């Protein structure tokens, strides 16, 4: 069937300057689709341009929490317009981040809320970033759930089993990246075992989070999703080909424009 890498930053210079080679290696590794994820208005525009030129690349549009303080009103007008583009399959990445202090937290929260509002308007799912803010994230999700069903994925998940279960209860998907393969990540692998098969996704978050056995090497790239996938399959006790089929079908169900 071919893997779907649900989170790549092809706009990043480390990948964009060798895009043809990166995509060729992904194809050779069995990656059939990928989502080029944006972090602000400029990268949203660039992601769409890449997706327009490559039939196996789709785009997200949105504003990362660490850049929310730099967003202007006109950027939101652009993002709202871009949601109508046939190659745009998601909003984000958005979310909350207390690891860095680049953006005041109230601005991050308002930015996150705007993405949820737009998601309800255009029916596109959110790609959700969470770092050092599990309780704050759960509070935000529970608040948004009062307005209706939630569509989205907790990307590059590294939180607790309890947080994963709360996210699942609200209808969200869980995606695992390279950190799942790290020796110190046994707790995360135990969490992965609790995620229903119809709610699980894989990603690279490239050029970041290179998986074992390439952890010390940068950049990470979509071809390396197979290492995370193999680790996840072993963790779940299922075949790699079965996981390929499951995660690709899940991706097409969540990111419905990819069908």
SSE arrangement:
Layout: E1 3-8, H1 13-16, H2 19-28, E2 31-36, H3 41-53, E3 57-61, H4 73-82, E4 88-97, H5 105-122, E5 126-131, H6 134-145, E6 152-154, H7 161-169, E7 173-176, H8 186-192, E8 200-202, H9 225-236, H10 240-254
Parallel strand pairs: 1-2, 2-3, 3-4, 4-5, 5-6, 6-7, 7-8
Helix pairs in contact: 9-10
Can you offer a commentary on this structure?
Helix 6 (134-145) links the parallel strand 5 and strand 6. The chain is of the alpha/beta class and 259 residues long. It has helices spanning 13-16, 19-28, 41-53, 73-82, 105-122, 134-145, 161-169, 186-192, 225-236, 240-254, and strands at 3-8, 31-36, 57-61, 88-97, 126-131, 152-154, 173-176, 200-202. Strands 1-2-3-4-5-6-7-8 form an eight-stranded parallel sheet.
- How far from one another are the termini? 13 Å
H/E element order: EHHEHEHEHEHEHEHEHH
User: How many distinct domains?
Assistant: 1
CATH class: Alpha Beta
- The assigned CATH architecture is Alpha-Beta Barrel
Separate helix tally: 10
Strand order of the largest sheet: 1-2-3-4-5-6-7-8
What percent of the residues sit in helical stretches (DSSP H or I)?
Answer: 40-55%
Indicate the proportion of strand residues. Answer: 15-25%
- Extract low-pLDDT stretches: none
- The total beta strand count reads 8
